[in-house]
Amino acid sequence: MGWERWRESEERHSFGVVRGALQVLLDSGEIDPLPADELARVVFGALTAGAMVIAGASDQQRASADVATVVERMLLGPRRSAVSG
């Protein structure tokens, strides 16, 4: 497929899903207002890096659990707290 075609496909498909899910959270007020495209790029980058960690791990189940924990905590950061609204 090659790197360039891979990135184009990723942009059209995978990134769009992440961008759409984050837009729903932004629109509903679940997360603090942030620039949607930049937020999606950062989150997508973290998910892509996590996938690479899992793919290269000798214990993929353990790596998957660890990546899931990190991503979950990272994503909870922008959630609105009870104090802020």
Index terms:
3 helices; flat
Structure in a nutshell:
The chain has 85 residues and is mainly alpha-helical. It is built from three helices and no strands.
Structure summary, number of beta strands: 0
What's the main sheet like? none
Q: First CA to last CA: what distance? A: 47 Å
The tally of helices reads 3
Strand content: under 5%
Class from helix and strand fractions: mainly alpha
Rounded Rg: 15 Å
The percentage helix is over 70%
Mean pLDDT: 88
Order of helices and strands: HHH
Low-confidence stretches: none
Tell me the number of structural domains. 1
What is the approximate shape? flat
Write structural notes for this entry:
This protein is mostly helical. It has one domain (3-76). It is built from three helices and no strands. The chain has helices at residues 3-28, 36-56, 60-76. α1 crosses α2 (36-56). The protein starts with a helix and ends in a 9-residue tail after the last helix.
Outline the fold blueprint:
Layout: H1 3-28, H2 36-56, H3 60-76
Helix pairs in contact: 1-2, 2-3
